[in-house]
């Protein structure tokens, strides 16, 4: 994408930026924050949210002008992001994980120009690359047919580490799914963006950097992966579609991990928890949204 044109009327796009951290990556956190402050053609209002940690104690210290919010306990990734939103101003929002950064100093300006040119877009996820040159995992391209990572398209989930939204759209979605703690909150946010009448978009021409990390390194990965799949259906789907969505993902996981019984046992433990535990607020998608998603390439049953 070429350098952005000045906004209509000479108005500079304003981004409220929420950077989430647990305080375990001080060098990476500073790199990510600096990459936001170095953005050109936009105004940024940045808060660093410490999930069970006080970012004001960071060493090296955060740059001047960056505000901090310390959460007394780790509330989980989606809840931590949500807590940061009221702390920042701007008609646009940008969420950045503490181990991600923006190599292009015009990234946010280009994202703002894309959103201005295409008001039907309610969420933009960039292409993600490893800064050391490692091959990017296929999961970073949130579509069934992965294809060329530089190809842009509608999507129905998002990689959550670098996401842009108009604040008005984010507010209408209800925000990130607080109860999820970890895993699949990007699926729910994308679904709810679609339910506002907007589209979730993968922008292959925008680039964010993030190291390749195996998500299964977390001991709770398999359990929360399954629990939150069930919660996605219970919170967001019309009742008749719930068994189709859960059933399709159950079949997929059984086939995927049939030779990994320990992981499969943990997954089914989470699957049972998904039915037994309270998933929080239920806001089923409108049938109009289900039809729009189906026409765009992915009915919400898989």
Automatic annotation (TrEMBL):
Record has Transferase as a keyword: yes
Keywords: Glycosyltransferase, Transferase
An annotated Gene Ontology molecular function: glycosyltransferase activity
InterPro entries: Glyco_trans_2-like, Nucleotide-diphossugar_trans
Residues covered by the Glycosyltransferase 2-like domain: 18-161
Gene3D superfamilies, alphabetized: Spore Coat Polysaccharide Biosynthesis Protein SpsA, Chain A
Associated pathway: Cell wall biogenesis; cell wall polysaccharide biosynthesis
Family designation: Belongs to the glycosyltransferase 2 family.
Protein name: Glycosyl transferase
Source taxonomy: Bacteria, Bacillati, Actinomycetota, Actinomycetes, Micrococcales
């Amino acid at each position: 994408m070429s350098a952005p044109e000045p906004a209509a009327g000479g108005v500079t796009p304003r981004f409220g930026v929420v950077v989430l951290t647990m305080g375990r990556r001080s060098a990476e956190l500073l790199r990510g924050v600096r990459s936001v402050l170095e953005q050109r053609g936009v105004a940024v209002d940045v808060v660093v949210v410490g999930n069970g940690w006080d970012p004001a104690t960071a060493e090296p210290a955060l740059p001047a002008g960056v505000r901090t919010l310390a959460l007394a306990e780790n509330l989980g990734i989606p809840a931590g992001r949500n807590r940061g939103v009221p702390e920042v101003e701007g008609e646009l929002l940008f969420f950045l994980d503490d181990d991600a950064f923006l190599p292009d100093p015009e990234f946010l300006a280009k994202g703002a120009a894309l959103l201005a040119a295409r008001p039907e877009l309610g969420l933009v996820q960039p292409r993600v690359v490893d800064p050391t040159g490692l091959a990017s995992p296929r999961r970073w391209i949130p579509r069934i047919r992965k294809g060329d990572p530089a190809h842009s398209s509608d999507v129905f989930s998002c990689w959550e580490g670098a996401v842009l939204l108009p604040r008005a759209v984010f507010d209408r979605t209800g925000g990130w799914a607080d109860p999820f703690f970890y895993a699949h909150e990007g699926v729910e946010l994308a679904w709810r963006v679609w339910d506002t009448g907007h589209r979730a978009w993968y922008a292959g021409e925008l680039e964010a950097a993030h190291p390749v990390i195996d998500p299964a390194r977390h001991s709770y990965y398999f359990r929360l992966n399954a629990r939150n799949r069930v919660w996605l259906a219970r919170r967001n789907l019309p009742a008749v579609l719930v068994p189709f969505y859960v059933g399709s993902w159950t079949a997929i996981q059984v086939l995927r991990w049939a030779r990994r019984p320990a992981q499969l046992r943990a997954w089914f433990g989470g699957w049972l928890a998904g039915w037994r535990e309270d998933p929080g607020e239920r806001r089923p998608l409108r049938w109009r949204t289900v039809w729009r998603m189906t026409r765009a390439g992915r009915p919400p049953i898989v």
